Amino acid sequence: xxxxxxxxxxxxxxxxxxxxxxxxxxxxxxxxxxxxxxxxxxxxxxxxxxxxxxxxxxxxxxxxxxxxxxxxxxxxxxxxxxxxxxxxxxxxxxxxxxxxxxxxxxxxxxxxxxxxxxxxxxxxxxxxxxxxxxxxxxxxxxxxxxxxxxxxxxxxxxxxxxxxxxxxxxxxxxxxxxxxxxxxxxxxxxxxxxxxxxxxxxxxxxxxxxxxxxxxxxxxxxxxxxxxxxxxxxxxxxxxxxxxxxxxxxxxxxxxxxxxxxxxxxxxxxxxxxxxxxxxxxxxxxxxxxxxxxxxxxxxxxxxxxxxxxxxxxxxxxxxxxxxxxxxxxxxxxxxxxxxxxxxxxxx
Length: 348
Known about the structure:
The protein is of the alpha+beta class.
């Protein structure tokens, strides 16, 4: 690129040549583009701006003479986040490219969100300039904040609804003199659904990270048993309905492990592991070190959830093995049906 092959003393001088006077197409493009752009010189004290185009002047409200010679910090103010400033400072210190959304101030005191892409420019192996393009993304940020507030309100209402449902159900069960263990099982299942909703709310209900779903479902047990519960597997985003059903299935497995399986004694452990290969997803729940396992006389609700409903939601197979040394669950399914990242996995 022309910007990386400078054979003149100053790209800023070239850029400041009146339109039509420069033969460098890059210089002409930078001057006339509607995207705000600046160039700073790290070889001068405080890395001052040595060039800014008309679009940058319009964006900030400053005159060109008020901009040149100043560090870009002059656009920052009290509401500018320190972590965003730190990203820019580190990129400059390390001489690497980076991009960050940063809150900037115009001359009139109004603020705007500025998407900054900054890159170092080298000539003959030496750092010569920093080139930065800018973009006003205020409307996008406002939309993101609005969605965030809506999601918080949705989360609040869903939790209230689930709490109401739980209260009504438990009261109904008590009035019907249903055994306490049945009421506790129903309450646990409603809480498992609520935990999956917490994970989905954090992701605007578009998807959920598999690890977050697994760890959220097992959090009540992990707080008690610590390293006796291990989770291993790559990052993968699940579709919302699958995330909810998996959370419920893991709750059933965890509850079973606590009452009868590997977590019912002092030496047992649980390993949850998954993998993604050749467009296929596989997951395993394996218990070891617990009491000797025997297959139940009848198929309970938990088994039906894990083997039938979960398999149907995943579009694959789900099988529980009551092995003598510990219960094992295996799930196999095509990635295409369960992950929002199927295209990326297919192309990798």
